[in-house]
Write a structure and sequence with these properties.
13 strands; 13 helices; about 375 residues; Enolase-like, domain 1; 4-stranded antiparallel sheet; alpha/beta; TIM Barrel; single chain
Length: about 375
């Protein structure tokens, strides 16, 4: 890939309502305030990235206002000063800034989209992936009643999703999981996600989930409790999967080495970018650790990139790459991700594989900030 010289970085904030509230153990969302990153270069190329940070620091320490600040004050000036660069250079250029993985990932993503478009190639071609479609799972939030939950799950089964993921928390775990397993039968993949809602004192309680033949239990304990996850993995039959605990390649290696992660949910925004996500995939594949691609309620920008990433051979479990309509009545891209026979097609257009619906994008834009050298 030829290096590109950035001349402008656009910070665009948009507002999208969710079609239904999405509740997890750390809160409920009815809408998304999303930061998009536009990159323009002296070579006349444009690329776009999407930041997955939430409006509040409840999933991770990062939040949208903080991302805007760190890009404006530190990261954009560093990228401008670096001059002609490739996407692979972004991690090194921004490496001396501690943390802020989601900000770094969004900037790398914009560079990736721009350089792929300039080269006239697709993301999955660059990755060397061969699959043209990937199995799709759906993430089901916490509901006010069991009846609401079962009705929602039945709807997703009717739509053809290959796997169901249930959000759980203390008081909303054993019975909902039991009834969903009865509803969907033993052949449909089922997994649960606790988003750090439990502690080591709950190990015996979590052992009760073993009877439901789950694919995995995702991030049951706190982010920094690797030893607790190791102990849980030794105590239960259900495979333990880490999500929030994995923020870097090194953390992924350590979690696998000590037995805290039997499966890893790879979220590019959480680990600092798609190129780091590929490194984690390669490491896990070499160590026979299954991986899958998690979701952060992305728009069509992030969904397209996630589809390409999930087409790598090591992604052996269905990811959270649901249809755009799962969360949004209208997406910001012209051809939103859709489900066909339980799968989503890997985009085959140059760049990350999307084209923006600019008129709609403008109508939901709340602010635009343009940075230049």
């Amino acid at each position: 890939m030829s290096p590109l010289t950035p001349t402008e970085i656009e910070l665009r904030r948009i507002h999208l309502d969710l079609v239904t509230p999405f509740r997890t153990s750390f809160g409920s969302q009815t809408s998304r305030e999303i930061l998009l990153i536009g990159l323009r270069t002296s070579e006349g190329v444009e690329g776009w990235g999407e930041c997955v940070a939430l409006i509040d620091p409840v999933y991770s320490p990062e939040y949208v206002d903080g991302v805007v600040d760190v890009i404006d004050r530190f990261m954009a000036p560093a990228l401008f000063a670096a001059g002609p660069s490739r996407a692979a250079d972004v991690v090194e250029t921004l490496g001396h800034f501690k943390g802020h993985q989601m900000a770094k990932a969004a900037l790398e993503m914009a560079f990736l989209d721009a350089e792929l478009r300039a080269a006239g190639t697709t993301f999955h071609q660059r990755l060397g992936a061969n699959r043209d479609r990937v199995p799709s799972g759906v993430s089901v939030g916490i509901f006010g009643t069991i009846d609401e939950l079962l009705a929602a799950v039945q709807g997703y089964i009717d739509e053809g999703y290959a796997r169901i993921k249930l959000k759980i928390e203390p008081g909303w775990d054993i019975e909902p999981v039991r009834l969903v397993r009865e509803l969907i039968g033993p052949e449909t993949g089922l997994q649960v996600d606790a988003n750090t809602a439990y502690t080591r004192a709950d190990i015996e309680h979590l052992r009760r989930l073993d009877e439901f033949d789950l694919l995995l239990i995702e991030q049951p304990l706190e982010t920094d409790d690797l030893l607790g996850h190791r102990d849980l993995a030794r105590a239960i039959n259900t495979p333990v999967c880490l999500d929030e605990s994995i923020e870097s390649f090194t953390q992924a290696v350590d979690a696998v080495e000590i037995g805290a992660a039997e499966i890893i949910n790879i979220k590019p925004g959480r680990v600092g970018g798609y190129l780091t996500a590929v490194r984690i995939h390669d490491m896990c594949r070499a160590k026979n650790i299954p991986v899958w691609c998690g979701g952060m309620l992305e728009t069509g920008i992030g969904r397209a990139a996630n589809c390409a990433l999930a087409s790598l051979d090591g992604f052996t479990l269905p990811g959270d790459i649901s249809a755009s309509t799962r969360f949004y009545a209208r997406d910001i891209v012209l051809e939103p991700i859709a489900i066909v026979d339980g799968h989503v097609a890997v985009p085959d257009a140059p760049g990350l594989g999307f084209e923006l619906d600019n008129d709609f994008l403008d109508s939901i834009t709340s602010s635009v900030q343009r940075l230049s050298p």
